[in-house]
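During the reporting period the student researcher (J.K.) took over the structure-prediction task from the postdoctoral fellow and processed the backlog of single-chain submissions. One of the processed entries is reproduced below for the supervisory committee.
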Amino acid sequence: INSGSSGINAEYGDCQRKKNEFYYVTREEVQKVSHGGKHCVLEDANIYTVDQLQKAGLHPIVILVKCKSSHEIRSVRNCTSEQAVKTISKSNKLEQEYLPKFTAIVNGSKCDDIFRAILSAVNNHKESLWLPIS
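J.K. obtained the following structure tokens:
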């Protein structure tokens, strides 16, 4: 779900800037999809987005995709070696700081492996609802 606009009228769940365009997803859009029995995939959603979805009464399945090496990242993503190293550093930092927020952490060296691991994580949590104690 990507609704592009430079102005945001509704409460948004996620907003990202890519080049000179803003992409946002409203909570209402996520709720519509969720109530239809489907999942929204919010790529590169940040922790603030997770918190906002939880406050809205939605319970996101939050998956951190990790690669073990910059070579693995470059095999699944078009990026430079420097960008791949930064990605590993960022994912390690996210894991350390926000581990309780993640439903699952998946690894893989090929797109197919990562896709299967994500699908498995979603299917494993489809029937259960985990709520934070706080």
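The committee noted the following: The helical segments are 27-35, 47-55, 70-76, 81-98, 111-124.
J.K. will present the remaining backlog at the next meeting.
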